[in-house]
Amino acid sequence: DIQMTQSPSSLSASVGDRVTITCRASQSISNYLNWYQQKTGKAPKLLICAASSLQNGVPSRFSGSGSGTDFTLTISSLQPEDFATYYCQQSSSTPYTFGQGTKLEIK
Amino acid sequence: QVQLQESGPGLVKPSETLSLTCTVSGYSISSGYYWGWIRQPPGKGLEWIGSIYHSGTTYYNPSLKSRVTISVDTSKNQFSLNLSSVTAADTAVYYCARDRGGSGSYWDEWGKGTTVTVSS
Predict the structure, then answer these.
(1) Under a CB-based contact definition with an 8 Å cutoff, are residues A89 and B106 in contact?
(2) What angle do CA A75, A76, A77 make, to 5 degrees?
(3) Per-residue pLDDT reduced to its tens digit, B16-39
(4) What is the pLDDT of residue A65?
(5) Closest CA to A74 of A88, A89, A92
(6) A33 touches chain B (CB under 8 A)
């Protein structure tokens, strides 16, 4: 199985901050990397697919980059509604696997 | 607007079979896409269980494959999950989702999730 490792596991930041979350795959996954946002008690929401393709309706302050084994999710200017847990997920090969999550909290 | 809704028992006894159904509205399963199940134990991360195409083709997480069956009923626009021989480790929120399928797959529409507790 491909292991996905996110860092940091948790992060405290303020409204307006620029935040970057990193995801590393245990082997090359090309650009088959997706990012989800999950708020407490809610289903995950797809933000970005194929490493950098923003889903319709997702604010442009979210962006993704990377290929191979190293990927990043950047939020350019944190808004109050962005405080949540973020997961990366690889779809290069089954079993599809997720990172352990990064919990973004208000400082 | 696509909507997915999970349904099924919230409590299952150890060693029994967990059975859930996902009802899709706003989109015909027969039109395409894969349809999948993902679960999340309390306070933990996400785990893909498996997915099914409208034709019935399935693919499962090998860690669960011996206990999992996913089926589809296009006449009811539903797909279902059966997980046999459950233990407390199967206690989780279970989500159904639309799966784009194949390499580059992602889940773009999700149900709200249903909590299943395994306990006697």
Answers:
(1) yes
(2) 100
(3) 999 999 999 999 999 989 999 999
(4) 98
(5) A88
(6) no
Q: How far apart are CA B111 and CA A96, in angstroms?
A: 19
Q: Name the closest residue on chain A to residue B48, using Cα atoms.
A: A96
Strand-pair partners of B55: none
Strand ranges of the sheet holding B3-7, from the earlier edge strand across to the other edge? B3-7, B18-25, B78-83, B68-73
User: Encoding tokens for residue A95?
Assistant: 């079993």
With a CB-CB cutoff of 8 Å, which residues 50-109 of chain B face chain A? 59, 61-63, 95, 97, 100, 103-108
Maximum CA pair distance of chain A? 38
Output B73-76 pairs: Cβ under 8 A, ≥24 positions apart: B74/B28, B74/B29, B74/B30, B76/B23
| Tens digit of each residue's pLDDT (9 = 90 or more) over A58-84 | 999 999 999 999 999 999 999 999 999
* CA atoms of A33 and A26, how far apart (whole Å): 13
DSSP string over A61-92: TEEEEEETTEEEEEESS--GGG-SEEEEEE-S
| DSSP-assigned beta bridge partners for residue A45 | A37
Paired tokens of B78? 């539903």
User: Which residue's structure tokens are 């697919």?
Assistant: A49
Say if residue A95 is preceded by a cis peptide, omega within 30 of 0: yes
Upstream peptide bond of B62 is cis (omega within 30 degrees of 0): no
**Under 8 Å between Cβ of A64 and A73:** yes
